[in-house]
Each structure stands twice: as structure tokens, then as C-alpha cells.
UniProtKB/TrEMBL annotation:
InterPro entries, alphabetized: DUF8212 (IPR058525), HET (IPR010730)
Pfam families xrefs: DUF8212, HET
Taxon lineage: Eukaryota, Fungi, Dikarya, Basidiomycota, Agaricomycotina
Domain Heterokaryon incompatibility: from-to ranges: 24-167
Organism of derivation: Lentinus brumalis
Signal peptide: none
Domain of life: Eukaryota
Name of this chain's protein: HET-domain-containing protein
Length: 635
């Protein structure tokens, strides 16, 4: 472990944090990005400064960055000889040292005598104990801590970063500092404020209760809306919260979080690891997200956000007879066979082999993984039969195979005043643990990290009539408030042929059966009587929009039929729609409203074309597609 001397900002090495000769301070902060200030100084930068100062006799602390200097000065003022700062106390050119630091990070912070939480974007001064007590007395009133001073604190970028979660939980004594390095308060002082805004229990921050007393799902929920620069760090920054050690492998993407869950499953009996509720926000409804939601493992810790994840706890059986205050339906579920030690999970290529209690209710299958909400209501995992990936029903492993159903979790309270479920029976089953290994052409395995654009075979040929780049497609997808993209018509053909009568249809759809379709094609229409056939080189483009209405509004089949009909229709207005006739190859389209509740409102799409630099005589590119429309609800 490398530490800086607070008087000179020189690096010194100790075999472990326990071997540091005296108490040390530690810094928790957000790294500067371009535009945020001076670049962070690395281990090598500090070494170079030390070498130059040896020659001229200057103090390195006077030359290092302001952040390092101010931190050293403050720690020295508070009586500490050493300070640890992650930017410059890890030699990141050494993979072994980086791995050790990542796996030891929680311990580094836990063993520090004081942790400084530097909030560079907060100007608030000291929060007095009297005003904090006055605010906490008003809890759980949502307006508590509503003063702008508290708002600035709660909005700090520091609370949005993944690594700062364990840096907040691990230390015993933690002091928040403002942008001017003045004390705002300790984490114990501000515990209720932090709990109200970020859901981390005040008792944990005050060290009245160990974080290990909270379920796996609850601890995962503390991550909530935090972000990391690298997707792998979503897993690595949580190692300490679950007492896990595993080697970091940068480049593996979100597979790191799957590895973390496998390690948690091996070391913790707590099955709330599987009690996540699905993709946050509306992005949970496209085909890829649905596939992820049917798996036992979550794609990222953000999938544990929400009220239920914060409340769900692991409650293995401790009784053999029903409680007197249970309803008759709850009592039926109390009759568990066996004990908690019989519940096992193991990773196999076909899925998680699980030995768990299974029961059926109204033709639906549920797993009893010993979950309850904090008010005592039982929670169960919904399961659906499926054939394991790459197998058929005839060559499967012999174990019944399931995927997780939708919705994932079902409350036992729904069975009140209805027929009780069948008594659970212990079974060995397979549960899907990851998305299918079979992928669409051009699709990467880590599609959870980004929204994938399907491959467009027609655009891969040299003589493609039109190209629409993935970057532009993603931009329009976001602007138009669409949820997913499809390619239809001639775009699926490779190689493209000049006599193809189908247009290429770029289809943007929402989960609520609304669409915008950009169609581009070669003109195959004949001119007026007595005129020669129009040259096939004439490119045309149109934009159509709409929604499923009336009796079709709730029918996926009818909606798809409508999309297919619009996508393959080659009819167009030769006078208005031929691209080369547009001024500057640009045109504005008025599109039918996608909102049944506001049919009079219009949406607007602007298409802009240019000649393709690769093949300017035969290919046009959609240089830009911009959307503007009614800013109404999507539901």
C-alpha cells in the first residue's frame, strides 16, 4: 500500500494498511474529467515531481495539484502523517497492484482513521447539529431537508458515482468537505438526510448496525442510480459490500457483474440476490430487455432499484407451525418441507441448477426462496417452463427447465380470499441465468451495455442505394422518443438489386404501439401516358407515422400487420418525394400524430441527404434525421 506523507506529498510503501506506522487519512472524491479542472495526477506524475524536487530542494507538496496539496495540508492540520488518495497511490501500470487495490479498497477505507469526502460542486457551509435535528424531527415528511443548502448537497455528483458508495459505508469516521475544503458535517450528522435521499440506512452510516445485516437485494439497491466510467466497475466497486474477492478483467464488460453474482451465490445463502425487479424505466420492454428479465442474474446493480428491492429481506424458516396471526393462505405457505440448508444453487452451461421449493397456483409456477417484505408479506419468484438454450425437449438434462416470468415477483397478499396455492415441494430444476448465447448478426454479447442497432444487410454492399449510419439511427431513436428500431423491406436484402420494388423501411416503434417509418426506395413508377418510363435511379423518400387505434390498440398482431403494410408500400409522389429534386437535398415532413389522445397534434421529421463519399455516383446517405413534435405523454 502506497501512501503520501502529508508534510511533503512523497510516496511511501507499506506492506498493508495494518502496517502503516501511524494512523492515516483517506480521500473520497470524484475524478476530474476534461473541463472539470486540472487533470488528476498519477503515481508516475508524483514520482517525477519527487525526482525533480530532489535536484532543486523544493517541497513536492508545493508543486503537486491543488487537490492533493489541499488534502495533505488538511490531513496534516488534523494530526495525520499519512494520506491515501486513489489517483496517485496506485501504480496502475502494474496489473497485480491494480488488482490488489481493487480487492482491498473497502479495507483501505475501513481502516483509515478519517475519510474526507470532497464535494467539489457543493458550496454549503457547516450544517449545525441543531438545524439537522430540527429537519430530522419532521421526517418522514417529503419536504424535510428542502432548504436549497440541502438540495445542493443532495445533488452533488459525488453521490452519483459507483465507487463512492463503499467509500461512504466502509469508514468509521467520515467528514464531508465543501468545494473550499471546509467541513460540512460527518456522515453520522447527515445520516437521516442521506437515508432520505439515497436510501442508505442511517443506522449503517452511524455504525449502529452492520451493513451485513441487510439483505443482498437491499445492499444492491443502495447503488441505485450511480454510474461508473467503465461497465466492469459496476461490479468491482461493490466487492467490499459483499466481502467478495475476484480478479478484475477490464474488457469483459458487464460480464463482470455476472461473475460477482456467481461469487455472491457461492458465499451467501441469501437468495434475494435474485429478487431484482427488471430493467429500470421503459427500456425494460424491448425484446432484449425482456430476455434479460427472464434470467436469474441481473445485468447490472441498477436493476435492484425501486421500493421492493429496498424492502425485500431473506427470511428462512424458523418455525414448524403457522403463526396465530397468519391468514389461512399464508399458513399454507408456512408448511415448508426440509430446511434452509437444503436450498442449493450451482452454475451450469444450461442455467442455474437449483434445489428449491416449488408450488403452483392458478396454473402458474412459483419458487419459494424465503423472501419477505419488511412488513412481513411473503414474496415469491414466478417461473415459466422453457427448453434450455441450444437443447431440445428430447436431449435436455432431465431437470425441468424454467425462465423467470413477468412480473418476476409475486406477493402472497394477492392470494387472500382466494383458493390457496398447492403446498410447495422440493425439486431440482434449471433456471435460465443469462441471455441466449445465440445472437443476431452483428450483435455483441454485452448488449446490455448499449442499445443495439440491427445489422442492415443492404447497406453492406458497395452499390447500396442508401446508407443510414448506426449513430444517426440511435440519435433519431432518442429524439423521437422511440423504444426500438427495426429494418424492413429492401434493407434486409443483400446484395441489393436495382429491380427490387420494395423500399428500405427504417422502423422506429414504441412499446405503446406507435411508430415512425422512414422509407427510401428506387422509383419504379411509370410516368404519365405518352412519356417514357422514369429512370430507376431516381431515389425517393417519405416519412409515415401513426399508432394502433380502436379495436387494434391492444392487438400486437394487428399492429404488426399495419407496420408491415406501411413498410412495404412503394407508392410515393414523384413530384414531391424524389430526393434529388429537394433543395439542398433536404425536406420537412408533417407526420400523422402517434397520440390517439391528441390526434390534432402533428409531429415533424426533417430528412437531410448527401452523396456518399465512398460511392458518390450511386449511393446517398441520410446525413441527418431530426424529429420535433408534440411533447405529450407516451402512456
Amino acid at each position: 500500500m502506497w501512501v503520501l506523507s502529508t508534510d511533503r506529498a512523497e510516496l511511501h510503501f507499506f506492506p498493508s494498511p495494518e502496517d502503516v506506522s501511524e494512523d492515516y487519512a483517506i480521500l473520497s472524491h470524484v475524478w476530474n474529467k476534461p473541463g472539470d479542472g486540472a487533470p488528476e495526477q498519477s503515481f508516475q506524475d508524483i514520482r517525477k515531481i519527487e525526482e525533480s524536487c530532489v535536484k532543486d530542494g523544493t517541497n513536492p507538496r508545493d508543486i503537486v495539484s491543488e487537490k492533493i496539496r489541499r488534502c495533505c495540508e488538511l490531513a496534516e492540520l488534523h494530526g495525520y502523517k499519512w494520506v491515501w488518495i486513489d489517483t496517485c497511490c496506485i501504480d496502475k501500470t502494474s496489473s497485480a497492484e491494480l488488482s490488489e487495490a481493487i480487492n482491498s479498497m473497502f479495507r483501505y477505507y475501513a481502516l483509515a482513521a478519517i475519510c474526507y469526502g470532497y464535494l467539489r460542486d457543493v458550496d454549503s457551509d457547516f450544517f449545525s447539529q441543531e438545524e439537522l435535528e430540527a429537519e430530522s424531527a419532521d421526517l418522514p415528511n417529503p419536504s424535510s431537508y428542502g432548504h436549497p443548502r440541502y438540495s445542493s448537497f443532495k445533488r452533488s455528483h459525488w453521490f452519483q458515482r459507483g465507487w463512492t458508495l463503499q467509500e461512504l459505508v466502509a469508514p468509521r469516521f467520515f467528514v464531508f468537505l465543501s468545494s473550499s475544503w471546509e467541513v460540512i458535517g460527518t456522515k453520522a450528522d447527515l445520516a437521516e438526510l442521506v437515508e432520505q435521499r439515497f436510501g442508505i440506512p442511517a443506522a449503517v452510516l452511524r455504525l449502529q448496525v452492520s451493513y451485513t445485516e441487510f439483505s443482498v437485494a437491499q445492499r444492491m439497491s443502495w447503488f441505485e442510480s450511480r454510474q461508473t466510467t467503465r461497465p466492469e466497475d459496476e461490479a468491482y466497486c461493490l466487492l467490499g459490500l459483499f466481502d467478495i474477492n475476484m480478479p478484475p478483467l477490464y474488457g469483459e464488460g458487464r460480464n463482470a457483474f455476472r461473475r460477482l453474482q456467481e461469487e455472491i451465490m457461492k458465499q451467501w445463502a441469501d437468495t434475494t440476490l435474485f429478487a431484482w425487479t427488471g430493467a429500470p424505466g421503459p427500456l425494460g420492454r424491448n425484446a432484449e430487455a425482456i430476455s434479460r428479465n427472464q434470467c436469474l442474474f441481473a445485468p447490472s446493480p441498477q436493476y435492484f432499484s425501486g421500493r421492493r428491492a429496498k424492502a425485500i429481506v431473506y427470511t428462512p424458516p424458523r418455525r414448524t407451525r403457522p403463526r396465530a396471526d397468519c391468514t389461512h393462505n399464508d399458513s399454507a405457505l408456512e408448511m415448508r418441507v426440509g430446511n434452509v440448508h437444503q436450498m442449493t444453487f450451482a452454475v451450469t452451461p444450461a442455467g442455474i441448477k437449483a434445489h428449491i421449493p416449488i408450488f403452483t397456483w392458478k396454473d402458474e409456477v412459483f419458487g419459494d426462496l424465503y423472501w419477505s417484505e419488511d412488513q412481513g408479506c411473503r414474496i415469491f419468484l414466478r417461473l415459466e417452463h422453457e427448453v434450455p438454450d441450444g437443447q431440445s425437449s428430447s436431449d435436455s438434462s432431465g431437470y425441468p427447465s424454467y425462465r423467470v416470468g413477468e412480473p418476476r415477483l409475486r406477493s402472497g397478499s394477492e392470494w387472500h380470499e382466494t383458493s390457496p396455492p398447492d403446498p410447495p415441494s422440493w425439486q431440482e430444476i434449471l433456471i435460465r441465468h443469462r441471455p441466449s448465447l445465440h445472437r443476431a448478426p452483428g450483435q455483441l454479447p454485452d448488449f446490455a451495455a448499449s442499445r443495439m442497432t440491427p445489422a442492415i444487410p443492404m447497406q453492406l454492399t458497395f452499390q447500396a442505394p442508401v446508407r443510414f449510419s448506426e449513430t444517426r439511427i440511435q440519435k433519431f431513436l432518442a429524439e423521437s422518443r422511440s423504444d426500438y428500431f427495426e429494418i424492413r423491406g429492401a434493407g434486409l436484402h443483400s446484395p441489393w438489386t436495382a429491380d427490387c420494388g420494395l423500399p428500405t423501411a427504417y422502423v422506429f416503434k414504441t412499446y405503446y404501439r406507435r411508430y415512425i417509418i422512414i422509407k427510401v426506395g428506387r422509383c419504379q413508377q411509370e410516368g404519365p401516358p405518352g412519356t417514357p418510363r422514369r429512370p430507376p435511379a431516381a431515389m425517393w423518400a417519405t416519412v409515415r407515422g401513426g399508432c394502433a387505434t380502436g379495436q387494434d390498440a391492444d392487438s400486437d398482431a394487428k399492429f404488426e400487420e399495419k407496420i408491415s403494410k406501411v413498410s412495404t408500400d412503394p407508392r410515393h409522389d414523384c413530384v414531391k418525394d424524389h430526393v434529388l429534386e429537394w433543395p439542398d437535398l433536404r425536406r420537412r415532413f408533417q407526420v400523422e400524430s402517434r397520440y390517439e389522445e391528441a390526434p390534432e397534434e402533428t409531429e415533424e421529421v426533417v430528412l437531410s441527404f448527401a452523396r456518399c463519399p465512398l460511392n458518390p455516383t450511386q449511393t446517398l446517405i441520410i446525413r441527418d434525421a431530426s424529429w420535433a413534435g408534440w411533447d405529450g405523454p407516451l402512456v
